[in-house]
Amino acid sequence: xxxxxxxxxxxxxxGAADAKRSKIFSKIIKEITVAVKESGPSPDSxxxxxxxxxxxxxxxxxxxxxxxxxxxxDKENTNLKEMTFEGYGPNGIxxxxxxxxxxxxxxVSSIRAIFTKRGGNLGTSGSLAFLFERKGIxxxxxxxxxxxxxxxxxxxxxxxxxQEEEEVYVIETAMEDFGSMQKKLEELxxxxxxxxxxxxxxxxxxxxxxxxxxxMQMVDDFEDNDDVQQxxxxxxxxxxxxxxxxxxD
Length: 249
Hints:
Number of strands: 8
Strand order of the largest sheet: 3-1-2-8
Shape: globular
Distance between the termini: 26 Å
Mean pLDDT: 89
Oligomer: single chain
Structural class: alpha+beta
Helix content: 40-55%
CATH topology of the largest domain: Alpha-Beta Plaits
Radius of gyration: 18 Å
CATH class of the largest domain: Alpha Beta
CATH superfamily of the largest domain: YebC, transcriptional regulation domain
């Protein structure tokens, strides 16, 4: 399929140190907070919250943590704003950074600093829109599924592409079909490991390994920032690059 940067990166980190797990958990807690503020604390009537809870399960976030996050968001006055930054890394790699923040100035300053430190440039909002297409990306667990029975239902719900990986099927939908696919999977009692709206590059750019590693170091810097939720880029994550990154971990 055309590429799903974020989960390839997070999957590579899943077995990493507790500090990395803590970062992933904090991003999900922010998503839970925004979902509760938008549509209330009941998952039954709040699709965005249901999705955040499902993503929490997918990274083995304890149920108690999820419930605390929901209760806290319902009771406290937290003002989180969504912000998106676009720019270029070294060698012309396009990078889009999506954030949730309670302090705009802090976030702008820290994102600009990472672009500058790693030899990139922060661009203007919307300047890279033509390089990416918004898509729904769902990871569903293969265990216990009769995929042949499901396939037609998934296509009817808007699946444009379905790929098989080691433990999951990866389903790609148009952005406008994201909600209908989420609803269909819930109706079919299919366990969603993760689901997100992602920015899929129209064309990917391959770099020599050492140059590509520098881009991934930049991506890591963004993902380590507490305000950052998702990072997308058009670097081609080749098997050779992924192997080199695993050897470095």
